[in-house]
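Project outcomes to date are best conveyed with an example. Our students and postdoctoral researchers have been running inverse folding experiments weekly, and each run begins with a structure described purely in tokens. The record below, which covers 482 residues, was selected by the lab manager from last quarter's runs and is presented without edits.
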């Protein structure tokens, strides 16, 4: 996250230069580099060079730039929209800068940031779309690196798509504002017109866009039940990311990190709905009703749940309510907490010859008289992942030992799996009850039990059992299904 006080000393703007003169003073490499950069625009280049090197001369000839083959004088700058002092000679560059300022023209002096009114960006050019990267002179290498990355992300045909979009601007204005118009544009950029442009079929793209305009069905609401992953932003799937950027409304649980919610459009509605143990902002029935209401209003909704939406996320109830109400939905899987915790511990959830099955449980069903089936699986070697297990840690350990699982069975616990502040603990089933009374664990906790745990890497983990005086009840931050 950007600290609130991080301010830009140079603010990026796009300057209109079409048909305007841009003066570049210099004979060599620096002048050529600026001329090349500026020649990506439709400005008229005026190159002041009384002793231009061969490369610069070749560039001037090939680009049709104006060449003033004379010793620099202030008159060369008159009428220019921008000036570049690129002579490599400090005294001359200073003179050019002073002259430009006197004429009221913004000036850039190559490699002399202290003399610059503006800086030139590293540029990704997909005209009419431009992505300008500035580092305020701090890191030209960084800027080039970013440029390379962004360049690879954007197909070469991107500019043609943007140009086609510009030609449809007026037509799109005739669509009702809001959902309908937004959907036209997102279908335009992600649907048939974009695909046709990519394939080089300009006419086809045009008619596909006309088809989209003509579609006059009212926008249908749609809910995507999306897994936000265990916490780390980059464990989000690409599909989840795309849907988030398209969503009109984002309905999210408390365990979903703010950074992921923030990936949505700036104008998307953001609706937090709970749920943390002890502070349920909304009941499940209220959440179901909210989703139906948003869907009926024609919104595209992302219902974000931590981890995977189908694992202890009450997605079953939400899907049933949506089906009943006739609102369309889809499910986008996410990385569930057990997988993130296992990865953090380099823990093989299945291990050849040791464990070939896996149980996802909350342990909250161990309280009755009869042992649930999963406990039997644990005894026969399954790896057990316990969600929301902190407050029942003693119960889980006690009942499993009673049922015949060895107290020496390995246990791994991860708090804040996948996040920078994660903590890892290891011990045995006999140590597990201590989890309930640890005051120092305030984030969500995943417990993994079984012989396969012995295959984990304990290098970065602490012993699970704590000394008595450190113990105090703390279950407050545990996300819970209620
Ligand atoms: N649908 C989620 C689970 C929701 S239940 C999923 O698939 O992961 C909430 C429980 O998940 C928490 O009590 C905790 O046991 C576990 N959990 C969620 N995020 C976690 C994380 N980053 N680290 C450890 N456990 C986590």
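After processing, the design step wrote out the following sequence:
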């Amino acid at each position: 996250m950007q600290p609130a006080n991080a301010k830009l000393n140079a603010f990026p703007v796009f300057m209109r230069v079409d048909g305007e003169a841009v003066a570049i003073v210099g004979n060599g490499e620096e002048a050529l580099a600026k001329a090349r950069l500026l020649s990506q625009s439709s400005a008229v280049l005026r190159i002041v060079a009384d002793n231009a090197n061969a490369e610069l001369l070749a560039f001037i000839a090939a680009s049709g730039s104006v060449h003033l083959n004379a010793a620099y004088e202030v008159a060369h700058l008159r009428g220019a929209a921008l000036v570049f002092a690129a002579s490599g000679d400090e005294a001359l560059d200073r003179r050019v800068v002073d002259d430009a300022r006197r004429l009221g023209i913004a000036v850039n002096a190559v490699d002399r940031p202290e003399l610059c009114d503006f800086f030139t960006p590293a540029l990704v050019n997909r005209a009419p779309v431009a992505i300008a990267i500035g580092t305020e002179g701090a890191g030209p290498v960084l800027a080039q690196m970013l440029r390379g990355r962004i360049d690879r992300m954007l197909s070469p045909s991107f500019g043609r798509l943007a140009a086609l979009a510009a030609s449809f601007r007026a037509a799109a204005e005739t669509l009702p504002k809001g959902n309908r118009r937004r959907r036209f544009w997102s279908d335009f950029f992600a649907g048939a017109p974009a695909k046709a442009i990519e394939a080089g079929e300009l006419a086809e793209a045009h008619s596909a866009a006309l088809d989209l305009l003509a579609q006059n069905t009212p926008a249908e609401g749609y809910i995507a039940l999306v897994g936000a992953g265990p916490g780390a932003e980059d464990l989000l799937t690409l599909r989840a990311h795309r849907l988030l950027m398209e969503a009109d409304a984002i309905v999210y649980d408390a365990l979903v990190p703010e950074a992921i919610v923030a990936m949505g459009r700036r104008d998307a509605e953001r609706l937090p709905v709970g749920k943390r143990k002890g502070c349920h902002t909304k009941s499940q029935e209220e959440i179901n009703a909210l989703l139906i209401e948003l869907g009926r209003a024609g919104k595209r909704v992302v219902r974000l749940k931590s981890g995977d939406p189908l694992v202890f996320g009450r997605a079953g109830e939400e899907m049933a309510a949506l089906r009943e109400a006739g609102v369309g939905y889809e499910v986008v899987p996410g990385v569930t907490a057990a997988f993130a915790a296992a990865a953090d511990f380099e823990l093989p959830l299945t291990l050849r010859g040791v464990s070939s099955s896996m149980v996802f449980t909350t342990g909250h069903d161990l309280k009755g008289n009869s042992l649930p089936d999963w406990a039997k699986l644990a005894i026969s070697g399954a790896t057990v992942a316990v969600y929301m297990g902190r407050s029942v840690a003693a119960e889980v350990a006690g009942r499993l030992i009673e049922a015949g699982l060895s107290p020496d069975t390995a246990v791994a616990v991860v708090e804040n799996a996948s996040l920078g502040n994660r903590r890892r603990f290891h011990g045995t089933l006999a140590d597990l009850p201590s989890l309930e009374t640890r005051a120092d664990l305030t984030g969500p906790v995943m417990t993994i039990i079984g012989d396969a745990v012995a295959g984990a890497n304990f290098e970065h983990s602490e012993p699970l059992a704590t000394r008595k005086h450190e113990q105090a009840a703390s279950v407050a931050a545990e996300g819970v299904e209620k």
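The chain has 15 helices and 18 strands. Residues 21-120 form a domain with the Rossmann fold fold (CATH 3.40.50.720). The training component of this project remains on track.
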